[in-house]
Specification:
The complex is a heterodimer of chains A (279) and B (310). Chain A has twelve helices and no strands. Chain A has 279 residues and is mainly alpha-helical. In chain A, α5 crosses α7. The longest helix of chain A is centred in the first third of the chain and has 32 residues. Chain A is globular. By secondary structure, chain B is an all-alpha fold. Chain B has two domains: 36 residues, no CATH class; 233 residues, MetI-like (MetI-like fold), CATH 1.10.3720.10. Chain B is built from 13 helices and two strands. Chain B is globular. Classes of the chains: A mainly alpha (279), B mainly alpha (310). The interface between A and B is large, with 100 and 102 residues.
Chain lengths: 279, 310
């Protein structure tokens, strides 16, 4: 604690100044988005702009819900991201547990294969993926989007969960097994409680990745009412006359769920990051 | 709850060892199978299919295809648009990676110090990385708006500029794109380096202080060797991800009329496939992108990993 010195020393001043600058650069745009979304139209187009709205209004939000399909986009995003997260977690937790606790032929090869697929960017996969999805008649369905997001999130979730499982000493379940518990009960009563924070953190990361996805939804979905938030909102933005108040209120509403989840997992974030597993 | 195993249990485990091993193999394999099916079906198979597609002339929507052999690749070698997009993509990837590393390392050193509100700042700086890209783009579009934007307003009132800058016009759009991308992705570098910094034993610094090393020397001789490995990985990942970055570039390109000046390789790949409907050509571009990445990664490993045994 003493190392950094007080607020009034030169060193302290540099640290607080620098931290303040980083805080300003990272968080100010968000403040600006909130401020704009509560301004009435005549205050939005004022130059130089006001920092705070002089008159707070919900007009932008009313327009967003009344005149656009925003509520559909929101519902679709919740459905697609939750389903992709559920599917990914069901498959990945068993897989990651197997990769850390069982010895079987080709285990290390499978682990490196997972790391290898984790390097493929969406733009490299989406073209053949799209052609195949059209062939089997799944284009413009939420199922195709859920599958695409799962494909993208699975390697990353497996890798992250693997590092969490590796941090739990195998001695614990060996003791339970010796005591006569079967593998399933050992996992349920010994491993699951210890791994739960890691599993929740991984699930939230997966959810955020799926929630933020733009490219898969852009390509796989064509009907307006099936679009997810990122695509729906970017299309609002491309309208001839840009309604900045409405766009900013939409941006704020997309960000809120991410922020809420983010506050939950912040604690695990740096630990998981240290394990080199975050995308 | 779990007492010492009795001699009987030990005997039982010893006898059961052989059959148990076989059982273990099957159980372990069964658990990983669903993941493997999904990875093969949703990633590996499409990639192999993509390689195959790149040898055909194929419309993105209509059925039917014509075998071209290396035709798509030969066309691209003579296509000036391809070379421009490769050049723009490389400039974009290298410059954004460089600035992310600089900003991220400085930020990590700073947030490794103790000060009041440190945890709050550590959380808040991740904000740009966590929000959807579309939000980052509309936010910056609004901040950089030439008529009503806050950035021009501040620069004008401070007398730094005398005329509004057209940030998203053809002369400045690449600069704006690099700024936005660095803003969006530097937190990844910061947190990766910070996680490593936290594991450096303070005794190393104390020793250097006793020796009278300056702050600069301490950074070069104590901190840098310690974070070298994490930087190696972070630079690799970030440059791969920036070289293949689609949504940030595409969304910014969509908004203004100057999109042509930031048409990087991933954007060109997308346009060939979904604007010109040439799925075969698009696949060839994706394969070229992949080969460039494999080649540069190999060179990168050769250049920087020789002296270490990792």
């Amino acid at each position: 604690m003493a190392r950094s010195g007080s607020f009034f020393s030169l060193r302290g001043l540099m640290i607080y100044g620098g931290a303040g600058l980083f805080l300003l650069v990272s968080a100010f745009p968000f403040f600006w988005m909130i401020s704009t979304s509560f301004k009435p139209l005549r205050e939005i187009f004022v130059f130089p702009p006001y920092f705070f709205p002089k008159e707070v209004t919900l007009a932008s939000f009313e327009k967003l819900f009344g005149q656009t399909n925003f509520i559909y986009y929101f519902r679709n995003s919740v459905y697609v991201s939750s389903s992709a997260t559920l599917l990914t977690m069901l498959v990945a937790s068993g897989g990651a547990y197997s990769l850390t606790r069982f010895r079987f032929m080709g285990r290390e090869k499978i682990a490196s294969l997972i790391l290898f697929t984790y390097m493929f960017a969406p733009i490299m996969i989406i073209i053949p993926f799209y052609i195949l999805i059209r062939k089997i008649g799944l284009a413009n369905t939420h199922l195709s989007l859920i599958l695409a997001n799962t494909a993208f999130c699975l390697p990353f979730s497996l890798w992250l969960l693997r590092t969490f499982f590796q941090s739990i000493p195998p001695v614990l379940e060996e003791a339970a097994l010796m005591d006569g518990a079967n593998r399933f009960r050992a996992v349920l009563h010994v491993i699951l409680p210890l791994a739960l924070p890691g599993i929740i953190a991984t699930a939230i990361f997966t959810f955020i990745l799926a929630w933020n996805d733009y490219i898969f939804a852009r390509i796989l979905i064509t009907s307006d009412k099936l679009k997810t938030l990122p695509v729906g909102v970017s299309d609002l933005h491309n309208a001839a006359v840009i309604d900045w108040g409405m766009i900013m209120s939409a941006g704020m509403l997309i960000t809120v769920p991410v922020l809420i989840f983010f506050i939950f997992i912040q604690r695990y974030l740096i630990a998981g990051w240290g394990a080199g597993a975050i995308k | 709850m779990f007492g010492n195993p009795s001699p009987n249990t030990c005997l039982f485990i010893f006898l059961g060892e052989i059959s148990l091993r076989k059982h273990e193999q099957t159980q372990g394999f069964l658990l990983i199978t669903p993941s493997l099916i999904l990875i093969f079906g949703l990633t590996i198979y499409p990639i192999v299919y993509g390689v195959w597609l790149s040898f055909f002339q194929k419309h993105s929507f209509f059925p039917g295809q014509k075998f071209l052999g290396l035709g798509n690749y030969i066309y691209l070698i003579h296509d000036p648009e391809f070379w421009i997009s490769l050049w723009l993509g490389t400039v974009y990837a290298l410059s954004t990676t460089l600035f992310q590393i600089i900003v991220g390392v400085i930020g990590a050193l700073l947030l490794n110090e103790t000060f009041r509100g440190r945890n709050f700042v550590r959380g808040a700086i991740l904000f740009p990385y966590m929000i959807p890209t579309v939000v980052a783009i509309i936010l910056w579009q609004w901040l950089l708006n030439d008529e009503y934007g806050l950035i021009n307003s501040i620069l004008l009132s401070l007398n730094i500029i005398h005329r509004p800058i057209i940030w998203l016009g053809k002369d400045n759009i690449m600069l704006s794109l690099v700024l936005i991308s660095v803003w969006e992705f530097f937190p990844f570098v910061l947190v990766s380096v910070l996680a490593r910094l936290q594991t450096i034993p303070p005794s190393l610094y104390d020793a250097a202080k006793v020796d009278g090393a300056s702050a600069w020397n301490r950074f070069f001789h104590v901190t840098l060797p310690q974070i070298k490995n994490v930087l190696f990985v972070v630079i690799l990942l970030r440059s791969i991800w920036m070289f293949t970055k689609f949504d940030t570039v595409w969304l910014l390109a969509q908004m203004g009329g100057a999109g042509r000046y930031i048409r990087t390789l991933p954007v060109y790949t997308y346009m060939r496939t979904f604007t010109y409907y040439e799925a075969g050509m698009g696949s060839a571009l994706a394969i070229i992108m992949f080969l460039i990445l494999v080649g540069s990664t190999a060179i990168y490993f050769k250049m920087f990993r020789r002296e270490e045994e990792l």
